Every structure is written in structure tokens, then in C-alpha cells.
Amino acid sequence: MALPRRHFLRNMGIMASGFLLSKLPASGIGGFQSAPHNIPVSKNLDPTWVRSLYQRGKATTYTKSRGELKYIGMPVGGIGCGTLYLGGDGKLWLWDIFNENQEGVDPRQIPWPEALHEGAKVRSRDGANYIAPTVAADKRVLDQGFSVEYMLNGKPVVKQLSAEDWKEVRFEATYPVATVTYIEFPLEITMKAFSPFIPLDADNSGLPATILSFQVKNKGKENLDVQFTGRLENGVGIATGPREGGKVEEARRAKYTSVVYSSTVAAPARDAGTICFSVLDPTAVAELNAAITGSTTGFLKSRISVPAGSTSSPLDFIISWHFKNTGTLEKLVADAASGNYYSSKFKDALAVTQYIVDNFDHLRDTTFKWHRTWYDSTLPWWFMERTFLNISCLATTTAHRFATGRFWAWEGVGACEGTCTHVWQYAQAMGRIFPSIEKDLRERVDLGVGFVPETGMIWFRAENAKHPAIDGQAGTVLRFYREHTMSADSSFLKRNWSSIKKAITFIFNQDKNGDGMEDTPLENTLDAVWDGEIAWIVGLCIAAVRAGEVMAIEMGDASFAALCAKYVAAGRKNMETSLFNGEYFIHRPDAVLGRKKLGSYNTSHIDQVYGQAWAHQVGLGRILDKAKTVSALKALWKYNFTPDVGPYIKTHKGGRPYALAGEGGMIMNTNPRNEAKPYGESETWQLGYFHECMSGFEHQVAAHMMAEGLTDEAMILTRTVHDRYHAAKRNPFNEIECSDHYARAMASYGTFITACGFEYHGPSGYIAFAPRISASDFKAPFTGAEGWGTYSQQSGKAFSAEISMGYGHLDLQRIVLAVGFAARKVSVTLDGKAVPAAFKWKDGKIDIGFTERWTVEGVLGVKVS
Question: Per the database record, which ranges form the Glycosyl-hydrolase family 116 N-terminal domain (predicted)?
């Protein structure tokens, strides 16, 4: 298809840089193998800018006046309920709630003047939405919006709540609640948009609905009577029609007024269902009008009085939907035939609305409490935004929940099916925010439909690809341990231990020569099968087996723990001896096959110490020597990170455009020694991956750098990704890899984990904090198995800390805190009452133990001197 004019004009600046006009290398896609390494060792970053990254700052706010609103699309539906975007000016768009199962939020192919690994084109899965971001105005599938009407100085004023009608519009990008403000004297209208989002409560966070809450501030001297009018076109039957057969009906209840949309379209059509548009005002006026499109539009009108100098109470609108049938997903996974998960909870959209109204205070207040809890931190606003917002991919068509209860996902919207283990194992957010979903996924899929009990093999896409990926296998074992730690007791581990042992034994069996280093050629996340001993895979397997050792000890399985310990010891020794080149970790070729096949060999690979990164995420301690690990991370900074990828991608071609000239990033794999054919003799399409910037991998490295004390590098790398997704360039909520809203990007949450030095083990009642930033005055949120809240500490000549619960409870028997000085005395209180405790001090940390297990529902305080 031809490049649309708007996309062509939008990219003229990029073309002027020479990037798009660079010619295809004469030797084809593999011609970049011998291109010289041209990433600058000195990054020449402004020290003032680096220091600014640590400043608390304010919420990122995009504005009309700076031209930053047109690409914004924040997901505002429930998890597993399709994709509904909130635009920068507050209007809803995209409306991918009809089970279309398309690839990408805006399926298209854009011509590209150089060879990618799939040819000279950029598909949705190659980054079409990165180089030519979708404009909200181009994808307003349904007519929807709000207007206000009032009398001012005796004259009527009518304004649409859209960018065109206001002097200024501001969008505050704080997922899961966005704040849109419309400003023009005498009114300032604030809209808070969200779908209920409550960590640890997956069901109430999975409602097919969005809530739009308005407040009016009257800055003038004249009392105003403001009429809000909301409108929504009937979208039922939008794809399969006929839409002219649709119906719009009024529904009035004790607390609200609704317009209910239906259609003559019936099951099994994927867009057969209902939509409900409501306002929490039983006196509101509903009007039903035919639209030019042949569909119909419903209107809801509600009046509020706003005295001069005052602000109104909230006026709340709800849009809910109900489309049971999952469309073409039924061809991929049998569970899809049961319908969408929400259809097992509600009979139609009106029932969804009724549930929300009946529980409105809890759903709204708890969502807002989490929003306050998350952002009420001493960590920088921008950092809190970027490390959390990627969990919004669960509220897009990347992720699905079926009525059977099963979670199933693509890698990115509509691309690469089957909740791929070697992608989703990077995604740290869901396991901490919605651990019940992850635990069900482990049991129902990884040890269920995707498990081969005879060998312990876990199919890396379950029934969608019946073979293993070694990194996915190891990462899934680590996730079993994470899910165990995010449990209230040991029941999850106990009922799955026999199968987990088999999964670990599978890893053992891939070490053919018994040196603790996996060497069986199996697929990995770069879509290839590599021969030899590969540092990042070896290290990941060591971490997985170390997790197995810890689980075995907890289970009292001494013989298996010993097997694991032996593997870990041998693997660590041999990896540090044989795969460390004095500066970084490498890939040792197979002794017989050599470098005939694709591999990373002597190059600097982004995941080279990923196993140690995983160990930090789940409190497993060191699995690799610290000095060698830090050296490897510094090598990644030296050889792979560049403040401007332009020169590199100009000479190293074939990669997908996830970072463009003028933008910074960490290249996946570079050739510091300028070897000829550094990636082996075989020039395959996967070579393109090596020269890309994929944000999920970058977040993994940033998380690891933070854990190892390379805080500047971690902050710079995270901010580099954040800036690539600035709203002036593209949608801030859509980190792209193989299609939109890519799951691996949820690795960003791991950087938050390590910034807090957070460790947690629910069954043993253990929690720990060791802040890496602003430790003298620190505050940040945390989640446990049965509750969440805030941790804060102040340190200097004395040390005090506080755990304050905001939701649920936290069972504790042991706390470890980074105090920084030799502790002589400790006192602990629970809701102001003294709690008996003993303590040990070592290496700057105080280890506090209780004689009994305490349940914290309020505030637990610690003072150390």
C-alpha cells in the first residue's frame, strides 16, 4: 500500500536526516556483518541533565499549545477486555473491543527503502506505528464526545470537549488514571478517565468499561448553570452489520440514566453484543437520534450549577461493553470458544454498568488510592510513569482472558500467539500487580496444556507451538519461584513441586557434557537455534536451577537441592572461567560445528548477564561474580549504548526501526573487536535483530544496572526509552517491538523493583528494602501477596522506617533494611504499640526478626540507633 500523505509529511524530518534514504547494501541483508563498530565510548552527556533525572519533578503533562496531543492513546478499558484509547484531548478512539484480532492497533505496511529481515517494508510487527504513529483523529471509529453549554454575560456558549474548542488542553499521563484539563476563562474543566484498576484484584480490574469523571471550576464572578451533553454512536454490529438494524434504548435506574445499544446482529458474530452509555444522574435527559452513517447516536444531558469561584462535585459517565465471542481466536486456542472472561460474569453491558454503580465508591476510591500510592513517592515522576505504564498492555488486545479462566496473550497486538514463554518471562509487572493471573498461567498452561510430564519440557507457546525454548523454560522456572514468593503460604509450591522438579530436570538434561553450562541447541527469543555455550542462556539456566535449589530446600527435598547446588556451582565456575573474555561474557562456539550457524560469539550481547538480573528480581542473591558482572554491564554501556543511534543504523542495516536517527538506545548486539563475520558464517534474517533497540531488553539491563549500583546508567537508559516515546513523537503508552503494546516492555517494572532494593517472600513473612536513590529520605509503593501500601525511610545519624498499608494486609516475621551504620538498638511498633523484636546487623543492613508472625493492616514502624 502507498504511504498515506499524512505519514509522508510527518516523516519528512526523518527523511532529511538521511536515514530513510540510505541505500540497500550491495551484499544484501547480511552485508552489515563486517561494518565497523561505531558507537562512541564517550557518551558526552550533559552532567546537569544527568543530575536532573533524579529530581522529583512533576507529572508528565502534554499540552495542546506544544502540539503534543495527537498521538496519545492511553488504554482505559479493563484488563483482557479489548483496547479502548483515551486521546490527548479526552476523546475516546480506536475502539478495538469487537474481537477483530487484527495485527497492530493500525494494521498496515509502510514501504521502506532498505531491507528488513522480512523485506523492504515495515509491517505492524516491524514498527509501522513507530515510524508513522497513528493519529487519533484518523481512528475515531465511533462518534463519541462531550460538550458543555452555559450562558455567559447573557450569551449562550457551546464548547466541545476537544482540542479545537479550548485555548489550552492538558493531558496528565499517569496510568491508570489520566487527567485531562480544558482551560478557557471562565471555566476550567477537569476530566479523570480510568477503568477500575486495583492491584491484587484481577476481576475488578478486568471490567469492560471506562469511567469519565468531570469537575467544573468556575473562575469567573458569575454563577453558571452548565449542561453537559455526552454522545456515543451505536457500535454494535460495526464490522458484520447491518448497522442500520441497530437499536438504541433508554434505561433508567435509581442512581443513573443509560442509553443501551444493541443490534439485530447475533452470535456467532464477533461484534454481536451490547454497549451501555450512562451518567450517574437519574434526572438526566436521554435522547436518541439517527445518525448520517445509518447507525444511531445516543445523547445524555445533565445539568450542574457552579457558583462563582467554586468547583463542582464530580459528574460521572460510564461506557461499558459486552461482546462475548472471541472471533478467530477460537482457531488458535480451544478456551477461546468459551467467550471472553467478562461474559462469564455479566449477561450484557447494562449488567456491567449496574455492577459498577453498585460498587462505585469501592471501585473508584480504591483505584484512586492506588494511583496516589504509586505516585506519592520520592522517586522521580517520570521514572514512576515509565516503569509502570507498560502494564497497560494488559488492557489492550495483546492480552485476553477467556471464560474458562485462562489468560492467553500475543507477544504484541495480534502478533506471535501463545503467551510465549521467552517473551513473557521478561515481563515483571503482572507477577507483582496481578499474581493470581500469573499463578493460574503457571498451573493451567505451563504445567498443564503446555507441559510434557515425561521430559519436563514446557512448550514455549503451549498448544500454539509444541516445542521448547530454552530461555523460556528457564525463565518460567524462575517465574514459578516468583509466584511462590508472591503467595501467602506454600500451597502453590507444594501442589506443583513434583512438576517443577521435572521442568528443572529438563534444564539439567540440556547440559550434554555435565559442566553446568547448557549446550543443547534449542530455540531462543531471537527466533533462532544457536550452537555452543552461550553466556546469557547459561546464566539464565544457572539462575533457574538456583531458584530450584531454594524451592527444594523449602520443600525439604534435600537430594534435589544437592543436585541443583552442584549444577549451580559448576555452571558458575565454568561460565566465569570459560565465557568471560576479561571484559564481558561471550558465546563459546560448539567444538565441532564452530561458527557455522548464527550466534553472538565474541560480540557484546545485551542479555549476557540476564540470569543475574533475574536473581536480583526475586532475591536469590549472587549467582555470578559481582566484579565480572559489573564489568559486563559497563561493557554494554561502553559498546552498546549510544545517545544517537543514527550513525550506527546507517551502517548496520536490516534491523527494524524501533529507534531512529537522533534518538538514543542500547543496541542489542555489537562487534567491539571489529571481527569479520562476528555472528557466524550463516547470514540469516535473524541478523537484523542484533542491530535494533528493543525496549524490553533495555529495561532488563536498566533494572540490572540499578541493582548493581550503576544508577546513573540505569536512569539514563530508562529516560532514553521514555524520551523515545514522548507524545510529541508517538504514543507514550505504546512501547513497540513485534507489534504494538509489546509484553516484554513490562520488564520496566523490574527497574522500579531494584530502585527500591525490594525483596519479598510471602510464605516466610519476609520483606526487605535497600533504596538505590535518595535513601536518606525515601518513599515508594510496594505490593505483597495480600495487600499493598507504602514504605518510607529517613536516615542520617539515626534511622526510621515505616510500612503503611493502603489495601489488604501484610504478614511479617522478618524485615531486612539497609541502615548504613552499625546498629546498637532497634524498636518496632505496630499501630503505635511496641512489638518484641530481635536484630542482627551486617554489612550495613539490619535484619529484624519477630518471635511471632504479625499481621500489618495499619502502620508498622521501625527505629534504629
Answer: 73-279
318 and 331 inside one domain: yes
Q: Is residue 230 part of a domain?
A: yes
Amino acid sitting at position 827: S
What is 329-398 written as a DSSP string? GGGT-GGGGG-BGGGGT-SSHHHHHHHHHHTHHHHHHHHHHHHHHHHSSSS-HHHHHHHHGGGGGGGSTT
Q: Residues of 186-214 as b/e, b for ≥16 C-beta within 10 angstroms?
A: bbbbbbbbbbbbbbbbbbbbbbbbbbbbb
Is residue 258 within a helix (H) or strand (E), and if so which, with residue range?
A: strand 257-262
Residues 580 and 532 in one domain: yes
The answer to whether the CB of 371 falls within 8 A of the CB of 384 is no
Strand order through the sheet with 845-856: 759-761, 766-769, 810-818, 845-856, 837-842
pLDDT per residue over 571-609, tens digit each? Answer: 999 999 999 999 999 999 999 999 999 999 999 999 999
> What does the DSSP assignment read for 222-250?
S-EEEEEEEEEE--TTTTTS-GGG-EEEE
The span from the CA of 162 to the CA of 160, in Å, is 5
CA distance 376 to 558: 44
How many distinct structural domains can be found in the chain?
3
Q: Which CATH number belongs to the domain containing residue 72 in this structure?
A: 2.70.98
**Same domain, yes or no: 286 and 419:** no
Please give the Cα distance from 725 to 740 (Å, whole number). Answer: 13
- Other Cβ atoms less than 10 A from the Cβ of 763: the count is 19
- Is residue 770 located within the same domain as residue 738? no
- The model's pLDDT over 305-356, given as tens digits with 9 standing for 90+, comes to 999 999 999 999 999 999 999 999 999 999 999 999 999 999 999 999 999 9
The whole-angstrom separation of Cα 172 and Cα 714 is 25
**Average pLDDT for the chain:** 93
> Which residues constitute the domain of residue 604?
377-756
CB neighbours of 9 closer than 8 A, spacing ≥ 6? none
| Residue 709 sits in the same domain as residue 777 | no
- Please identify, among 730, 756, 782, the residue that sits at the C-terminal boundary of a domain: 756
Q: Is there a single domain that holds both residue 770 and residue 690?
A: no
d(CA 579, CA 41): 23
pLDDT in tens, 780-835: 999 999 999 999 999 988 999 999 999 999 999 999 999 988 889 999 999 999 99
Q: List the alpha helices (DSSP H) in 652-710.
A: 695-707
CB 819 within 8 A of CB 772: no
Residues β-bridged to residue 248: 261
**What is the structure's pLDDT at 290?**
65
- Please give the single-letter amino acid code of residue 222: E
Pairwise CA distance, residues 155 & 265, whole Å = 45
355 phi, psi to nearest 5 deg:
-65, -45
- Separation CA 345–CA 53 (nearest Å): 44
DSSP 690: G
Vertex 530 angle, CA 508 and 112, to 5°:
140
Taking CA atoms, 333 is separated from 203, 220, 336, in Å, by 22, 59, 6
Radius of gyration, alpha carbons of the chain: 27
Residue pair 646/33 in contact (Cβ under 8 Å)? The answer is no
In this structure, is residue 301 part of a structural domain? yes
Q: Are 749 and 702 in contact (CB under 8 A)?
A: no
Encode pLDDT of 241-258 as tens digits.
765 556 788 888 999 999
CA atoms within 13 A on the CB side of 345: 22
**Could you check whether the bond before residue 36 is cis, i.e. omega within 30 degrees of 0?**
no
